[in-house]
Design brief:
10 strands; five-stranded mixed sheet; disordered C terminus; alpha/beta; about 350 residues
Length: about 350
């Protein structure tokens, strides 16, 4: 009988966990809140990940104590080796799997989109990050601490830039933009100034601004010059990250896969995609960019299957199953820390 594996893609705004077996069968897919150990603490983060795993077991009709052979955890805001070791200790303490692997979430995108496991990966979801792996295994990453390390990008940065540009258009510091008209309705308010005041007072949490990003992209697609400038800036940042990583690993003269993943890159933003491709063609002509065509959690569960010794056929079967399935709603399965009253025949586990 097959063993069980878990793959986790923990992003800033949401965390996806897939439970599967080593024959490539998709048993459950659970979604929870974002992975933010830098603000919530690693112990709390690990507890939430363990709870999400129990939710998945319950969804599959399995007891919450059912052993998992391998768990691969690819987590946002785990950017340094010390943080990886801390997360691994906490997850091991909680017994999430007989063997656990912890990596940064950018590497899930790379594993999902680069079949040989090397190249450059960019994640642009709520935030932004990138990493690269050389064919010989060397890695290059960024410190990724936010503004203090020069980071800009992702949906939240786009949203904040759009709101700021709309305020500037109203007070005379910036050019006119349809963002003044398009953004306030998202929060049911009359003006962008009202939105800014509500954010400043805490009535609107800063993470909620992420919902404005699709409006900025839509306004850019309609031809608004200010919104287009924000989207182009995001593209420029992504190209800067990619070329920096290629240069650091001396891959500028090597045909190299560049995998683009995350919500702002996988949502068919034509202007952003075309700008990135054009800039890379000029600055790194041997880069081979492609937008990831499956959820990044595919990379995490692929790593778990590889670690467990599953076959290429099993990995392909699971990839296709995830691609064909609609992602779950966040928190779709509620508390399930107790065993189901009737569990089906369980797979053999070590």
């Amino acid at each position: 009988m097959p063993d069980l594996v878990v793959g986790v893609d923990g992003g800033n705004s949401k965390t996806d966990l897939v439970l599967a077996d080593t024959e490539g069968r998709l048993l459950a897919w659970a979604r929870g809140e974002g992975t933010r150990p830098h603000t919530d603490g690693m112990e709390v983060t690990a507890e939430r990940l363990a709870h999400l795993g129990r939710r998945a077991l319950a969804e599959a009709g399995l007891a919450h104590t059912t052993p998992v052979a391998v768990g691969a955890y690819f987590l946002a805001n785990v950017d340094r080796r010390a943080q990886e070791r801390s997360a691994l200790r906490q997850l091991t303490r909680l017994g999430v799997a007989e063997r656990a692997v912890v990596r940064n979430d950018t590497l899930a995108v790379l594993r999902a989109g680069a079949p040989d496991g090397w190249g450059v990966a960019v994640v642009s979801g709520a935030g932004i990050n990138a990493a690269a792996v050389h064919p010989q295994g060397r890695q290059a990453r960024f410190l990724s601490l936010g503004d203090i390390t020069g980071d800009w990008g992702g949906g939240l940065a786009v949203a904040r830039a759009g709101l700021g540009a709309a305020v500037r258009a109203g007070d005379g510091r910036g050019p006119a933009t349809r963002l003044r008209r398009d953004l306030p309705a998202h929060f049911g308010l009359a003006s962008v100034e009202s939105v800014a005041l509500a954010v400043s007072s805490g009535e609107i949490p800063v993470p909620a601004l992420h919902g404005l990003a699709p409006l900025v992209f839509a306004t850019a697609a309609s031809g608004d010059a200010v919104a287009r400038g924000i989207v182009v800036r995001l593209g420029d940042e992504i190209v800067a990250m990619v070329t920096a990583l290629l240069r650091r690993l001396r891959l500028l003269r090597t045909p190299t896969p560049v995998v683009l993943g995350g919500g702002t890159l996988q949502n068919d933003q034509v202007l952003l995609r075309d700008h990135i491709h054009a800039r890379l063609a000029a600055e790194a002509p041997l880069a081979r960019p492609r937008v990831l065509d499956v959820p990044p959690v595919v990379g995490a569960v692929t790593e778990a299957l590889l670690t467990a010794g599953a076959s290429a056929t099993a990995r392909r079967r699971l990839r296709e199953a995830i691609a064909d399935r609609k992602p779950p709603a966040q928190g779709a399965v509620d508390a399930c820390d107790t065993e189901p009253t009737q569990a089906p025949a369980q797979p053999r586990v070590r």
